[in-house]
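Mods, move this if it's the wrong board.
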Amino acid sequence: MTSGVREGSLEAPTRHPLGHEKVEFWNEDALFSELERVFDICHGCRRCVNLCGSFPTLFDLVDGSETFEVDGVAQQDYWKVIDNCFLCDLCYLTKCPYVPPHEWNVDFPHLMLRAKAIKFKKGDVKTRDKLITSTDALGKLASIPVITQTVNAVNNNGLTRKILDKTLGIHPHALLPRYHTKTLNKRDAKRKPLDIEIQATSKTTGKVVLFATCYGNHNEPELGEDLIRIFEHNGIPVLLAQNMQCCGMPKLELGDLEAVTKAKNHNIKQLAKLVDEGYDIVTPIPSCTLMFKQELPLMFPDEVDVIKVQQAMFDPFEYLMLRHKENRLNTEFKKPLGKISYHVACHQRVQKIGMKTRDMFELIPGTEVLPIERCSGHDGTYTFKSEFHDTAMKICRPVVNRVKQNSADHYTSDCAMAGHHIEAGLADGSKPRHPLSLIRMAYGI
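Not the wrong board. Structure tokens:
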């Protein structure tokens, strides 16, 4: 570990662009040199040991080596650390004291992403991983009526799940998402636009485009329905964006930067046009919001339309609470929600907006919120993989224990998939209620 340098930093973290357009980004020798440098810093610090599987894996490799240092770890074993990273970004924004502007310039998530990208470009990727990150293709196929029934039946059958485990590496106990024939796009087709005078605030235009997300369109379309009803109840017209592709987060986590770029080119062009027409943008999934707020701008920092969309992108509760500051939020709630066990999603935490969902819950009389700021371990696809499912459940165990201890009336997470991961950990038959569903319930609409 480098000596003679100040310990840690009290300055706010800054972030450098990913730099994937540069030739040296793809140099594998340079990659492994940087991995060794950063792993040595992590080994000397160890503050991130409780965040995910990457850090315990790294420290176990170091402690099991002959030298008890990073130089004793075989470079091929570095991939064990890389494969356990699911790019939650929490180490960068909540734990690491050596991120820029510190001179050690540690960006662990971006280094892991670089490694994943090089691995993917070499063709070292499983068919399963290509399949489960192709969310648009899966959603379109699985929304065909007969196929929907078949897919849902297969996903819930013990025998076929064992076959999926052996053939594809999908863990037989992972709780897989359901698919709907009646997608959000179909459900919303006959809705009439809200015909009212637009009420802007200093930071919101007062009319929004809903980027449904592939999950929100195909797997839980009720999330979009709830969001639309809540926003319209607050006098905010909502336009459902049409002909959208996946935000790109699943492919980003795979290291498929070419697929991310293609999705960006498709989505940004249309979203930027809507921003020019005076719309703000919201999504019901924190990971998708983060993709437009952070990941794409860090990949394409010089593209004007990417930055335009970034500046117009909001978490739905961030948006509502911004309007509340200027007395533009309907606070006439009709039903108390009692005690809520609230898991704070990682990809919402790293947006640096604070707990806006909790703040809105606390406006409801007769409602108590108990936040849980721990990773659920789901990560979109991580928990589905046979080799990582047990680790995902282990990461989730403290969250599950807190939910049990809270004995709340509801448990919830802004990340719908995290909510279902907690459901799998509880294994008591109880179901999560998404914050949007709970707010709609409290409004009585």
